[in-house]
Specification:
The chain is of the alpha+beta class. Helix content is about 15%, strand content about 30%. α1 packs antiparallel against α7.
Length: about 775
């Protein structure tokens, strides 16, 4: 029987649901504040049916008002420039707002217009800020890299001078590891490298940085098949340590005095940096009065975490707090989040996050003795983020999850005294809260939503009072596509008793009398959850929403080993990365869901994912061939033995051949039974294409059929190729899971590489 052909309308709808189109479908979902008066006020751009509006918010006065009248401003510009200007011609970005005027560029000229009488005059263009500069807080100087050294320049004149002169390829000042410092994506944007890893002191006199010791770190190689000049292939070499390697990048911390040029090295061992610079990771910070630098370090097995104080005058380093545990000791469960550590009372006390009682809580330490003074928070829930510490009143404001047993992921704003008394929920409702704290922390911006309720953003006082409503998201256009909010569900893990959570996306035009194919969309590393409690579906959720538009039931599940809950739940992945954060639990949940939902057709089940989700997609097919008939695995980490050292050893533990072989898809390639599409970028410098090629070689040796797509010039995120990759993924799963033919000749529109499109892709 000839398969039916999917209507092109489904593909058009799925394309509209991709991340870079979200702003068109949901207006005012995110407020990006530009602070005024040190954070006392702010302005932002609001989307309206008539076009963008620029609003000034004064929480103290409880006002949210137009910064200017667009029609009047356009008329004034028409008169001043002699060229017809409509409100729609005013730029959405690139504005500079001051107390009395607004500056922007239109018609190729920069204009300054009074916000009082709307007089518009050409403005002198500000000198362009060098993209790779790191400017001081006072705006007088900036630090930049030249070759392997750091230099400073005056921003109000032409003077520049060297801060270091002994850098080399192996001992490189202010450098991140190669894969991060010189990434393929930066090259696509015409940027040679990241700005230097430097951190200015609040008084703008000094910078904290490091000389990066890369001597002896393993070299790995990529082939640039089609260089920009069109010539023959080019070998691209980077230092990239593998699990078990003796050498990894090390950060030799130092403080540089901008005016005198004096270098004060830290009198301590270098800080291991297998992931990235401690500056980039936010594991280092200055005291508010510039009197000290504080930094975190961890042992290679990640079971010991330390907080150090560095004296910027002498280089003396003193360890303030040390915690050791039987498994990972982390300053936050979610990789990439800033550590939950604060130094208080002019350096006398430390607020410290720990999971020693199985939950993520805060403890107060004496910085001199290193002893615990008291536990600040406690209970069967977890602190997720420190928002603000009011030292005058000795009160901490923070985000917590798990206060509602029905939803362990939903975040609530809370407060408690440093002595552990007076715990209270600042936002006591059924909403998830995402918080932004301005400089000065006189209030907070609160974006409150659920999976089905679009966010409302308000400015609130720290006692929870709403000072002013800032923005109310409108998802009318999103709903008009046929989208429906994901269903949150609970299921029982494969152990028969642990409760796990997930999200279920219904196909568009859902009819419970029909039978629908099912797709699992996992993320395999225990570094990020797939369940999100807010309206924003998260980086991977957009692809799940698009697949639902193509007629699939899509599930996202957090099995045992994923983060965001208690430590025991997270530790289920310790040394068991091959389980991909609970794939057995995924299968148990799918079967449980299908028992109560006969419209879920598990005889047509597939799986797809990228990065560690690509690993998980293949692993699901190898370990559960009776469930998953087809899968798409993009840039998968298929052999942990040759992956990024920092992530691998953090979650799998110290290198042991047998343990790491168990976490390899390559060593069980002969189990493949279903239809598999493997995809990898040829210039993926995060997880090299050889990780897929190793799997390919074993599949061939096992005489297995599969499909392979190599995108020669693509990076890890396939920037510039999203349209092609999405279509190939959709076509494959429509054919081999849904059992239909894709619409003939349908092509997606390429994503522009302009700044707004990239912001849509990466948040």
């Amino acid at each position: 029987m000839t398969p039916t052909s999917l209507d092109a309308h489904a593909y058009r709808t799925a394309e509209r649901l991709l991340r870079h189109h979200r702003r068109e479908l949901v207006t005012n979902s995110t407020v990006h504040p530009s602070w005024l008066d040190g954070g006392v006020r702010f302005w932002f751009t609001s989307d309206t049916p008539e076009g963008p509006r620029h609003l000034i918010v004064d929480p103290g006065r409880g006002t949210c008002e137009s910064a200017f009248d667009p029609a009047r401003l356009a008329a004034a510009l028409t008169a001043a420039s002699g060229r017809s200007t409509r409100p729609a011609d005013l730029p959405r970005t690139g504005l500079r707002l001051t107390g009395e005027s607004v500056e922007f560029e239109v018609h190729g000229t920069r204009w300054s217009c009074s916000r009082d009488n709307y007089d518009c005059v050409p403005a002198e263009a500000s000198p362009p800020r060098e993209l790779l500069d790191v400017a001081a807080p006072d705006g007088r100087h900036a630090v930049f890299r030249r070759d392997h050294d750091l230099h400073a320049r005056s921003l109000n004149g032409g003077r520049h001078w060297a801060l270091t002169d002994d850098g080399s390829a192996d001992r490189d000042w202010g450098a991140n590891p190669d894969y991060f410092m010189y990434s393929t994506l930066l090259g696509k944007l015409g940027i040679p490298h990241l700005p230097p890893a430097v951190l200015w002191s609040p008084d703008s006199r000094r910078v904290l940085t490091h000389r990066t010791d890369m001597a002896g770190v393993r070299e790995t190689h990529l082939i640039e098949a089609l260089p920009a000049d069109g010539g023959p292939p080019v070998l691209r070499t980077q230092r990239f340590a593998h699990p078990g390697d003796d050498r990894m990048p090390l950060a030799e911390l130092a403080v540089l005095d901008i005016e005198s040029g004096k270098t004060v090295p830290a009198l301590a061992d270098p800080v291991p940096m297998p992931l990235m610079s401690p500056v980039s990771r936010r594991w280092v910070w200055w005291a508010a009065d510039s009197s000290a630098v504080y930094y975190l370090s961890t042992e290679r097995d990640t079971r010991t975490l330390r907080l150090h104080r560095l004296d910027p005058d002498s280089g003396e380093v003193r360890t303030l707090v040390t915690e050791t545990g039987p498994t990972r000791v982390e300053p936050t469960q979610l990789l990439g989040r800033p550590p939950m550590v604060r130094v208080l009372d002019s350096g006398a006390q430390v607020l410290w996050y720990s999971q020693r009682d199985n939950w993520g809580h805060l403890y107060l330490y004496d910085a001199r003795s290193g002893e615990v003074l008291n536990q600040v928070t406690q209970g069967d829930w977890a602190v997720q983020e420190i928002l603000h510490v009011d030292e005058e009143y000795r009160v901490i404001h923070f985000l917590a999850s798990g206060l509602d047993a029905e939803d362990p992921y939903r975040r609530t704003v809370c407060r408690v005294a440093l002595d552990g008394t007076g715990f209270a929920r600042t936002t006591d409702d059924d909403l998830d809260h995402v918080v932004t704290v301005p400089p000065g922390a006189g209030y907070f911006l609160d974006s409150a939503s659920t999976n089905s309720l679009p966010p409302v953003t308000t400015a609130r006082s720290w006692d929870g009072r709403v000072l002013v409503e800032v923005a109310r998201a409108d998802a009318t256009r999103l709903r008009e596509t046929g989208w429906s909010p994901p269903e949150r569900f609970r299921a029982t893990a494969a152990d028969g008793h642990t409760q796990i959570h997930g999200m279920l996306y219904l196909p568009h035009g859902f009819d419970p009398s029909e039978r629908y194919p099912v797709l699992d969309h996992p993320y395999g590393f225990p570094s990020a959850p797939r369940v999100v409690p807010c309206f924003d579906p998260g980086f991977y959720g957009y692809d799940a929403e698009a697949m639902a538009a193509l007629g699939f039931v899509v599930v996202a599940i957090d099995g045992r080993g994923s983060p965001g809950r208690d430590k025991a739940f997270h530790d289920a992945s310790q040394g068991l990365v091959g389980d991909a954060a609970g794939l057995d639990d995924h299968v148990a949940a799918l079967r449980e869901l299908a028992r109560d939902r006969p419209w879920m057709d598990l005889s047509r089940a597939g799986v797809f994912g990228m990065s560690s989700g690509g690993f998980a997609a293949v692993r699901a097919m190898l370990d559960h061939p009776e469930v998953f008939r087809a899968g798409v695995a993009e840039c998968g980490v298929h052999d942990l033995r040759y992956a990024e050292q920092g992530v691998a050893e953090m979650y799998q533990g110290p290198y042991h051949a047998e343990s790491y072989a168990a976490a390899s898809n390559v060593d069980r390639a002969d189990r493949l039974a279903g239809r598999l599409l493997l995809v990898h970028g040829g210039l993926d410098d995060s997880f090299s294409p050889h990780l897929t090629m190793r799997l390919v070689e074993r599949l061939i040796a096992a005489d297995k059929d599969f499909d392979l797509l190599i995108v020669p010039q693509a990076d890890h995120a396939f920037v510039g190729y999203e349209h092609y990759l999405s279509r190939r993924r959709w076509d494959f799963l429509v054919r081999h899971v849904r059992g239909a033919e894709p619409p003939d000749g349908y092509r997606l529109t390429p994503v522009s590489l302009d700044s707004e499109a990239l912001a849509g892709l990466f948040g």
